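#dry-run=false #mode=assembly
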Amino acid sequence: MNPSSQSAAALARVRVVLVHTTHPGNIGAAARAMWTMGLRQLVLVMPERFPHADATALATGAAEVLANARIATTLRDALAGCALAVGLSARARAFAGRVLPIRDAAEEVIGSAAEGDVALVFGTEMSGLSNAELAQCGIVATIPANPEYPSLNLAAAVQVAAYEVRIAAGAHRVWAAPRFRPATHDETEALYAHASRTLTALRFLNPAQPKRLLPRLRRLFGRAKLEREEVNILRGILARVDQFVDRDTER
Amino acid sequence: MNPSSQSAAALARVRVVLVHTTHPGNIGAAARAMWTMGLRQLVLVMPERFPHADATALATGAAEVLANARIATTLRDALAGCALAVGLSARARAFAGRVLPIRDAAEEVIGSAAEGDVALVFGTEMSGLSNAELAQCGIVATIPANPEYPSLNLAAAVQVAAYEVRIAAGAHRVWAAPRFRPATHDETEALYAHASRTLTALRFLNPAQPKRLLPRLRRLFGRAKLEREEVNILRGILARVDQFVDRDTER
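#status=ok
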């Protein structure tokens, strides 16, 4: 592949995920913003109104992006198969994993696009992503903004993020093969689900009062950027613990 | 002045000039885009309809930018007193001056803001700036875009340009994840020793044939740069597992 078709291939693996979008016009404007930067995979998690004439009107030349948009019922479903999910947030959060400015996050996006699909996740217009939604993202990206008024319009935020991803794709024309194979989003999510079950069985985690345990573990392992083999080792340890817990329960 | 007030002073000298804008909603959305990046000087050259309810609605929290917008009858008038004018254009032109990507143009904007006001000039929605209008600009800036569909919405182009100018001004104020206390060498070594005992008791690790298990775990947690509280959480989990293993052994 020549450099520009490599860039285009990387950009084609970037999904834009819009969660609970209120105004259909913003969906159309986001589709247009994506396509001006060469992104075409749009996933809508429970949009309030879609399809809608306002979305079509504001998409203008990006009608195809809109026509091919996928509707998902949960964020988990929207992120299925992704190597990396990057959540956009303007607000400061207590437990948010790695937090990067969008320019640095865009480098990670293009790096991970060598492994598979990568998601850029945007929350609802009024309040952004919830903490539970952000917890499903390996990286939180912020767009530097005026602290007096950091509230970018949704499509404007998509435009800036897509722009940075496009620039990063141009700068990364040769992808270095990673020495180890990174775990996919699905693999790490399955690890967290397994850990949650095992910790509950150990009575170390009380699902009724989970406190900050799982977010802390997500933050730790998110920072480490788990490899597939590491996920397998950790799940092997959990499975071994499960056997002891099961024997204890059977007694 | 401290660095951030210097940035704010430079951004305050950047004018956004919109020439012959057709849709008042775009004026409002542009005002919002500007103010999210700390720009507040808006100049409108012969807008088709202004003031207008659509402009007000889309400006949301940037009402003040809109209220202070200056109306000019000619581009020349709008640019009066500027040290530099940068015209945005997606299309290639037979242009005698300097053509730069917006990232490089933003550096020039901030450099010139030390001498006086600087203008970012945007043309009409359908056709952009005319050649005669571009001729009044010292630099033409382009936003890298999908060659198949380079047509950014006007306010989206303002958002990207204002974002690049803000970054160039050094106003990189993003919120950081809270800082935690890193674990000491002794604390992480004690964790590895504990893990080694527990994994041996689980018969997951055979000390006679340890293979690569412990080095792999060291590599993973070393990459994550453990915090003290994380070491405590992990040792808490190990201690809980130890209780189950002990009960199993006592049987």
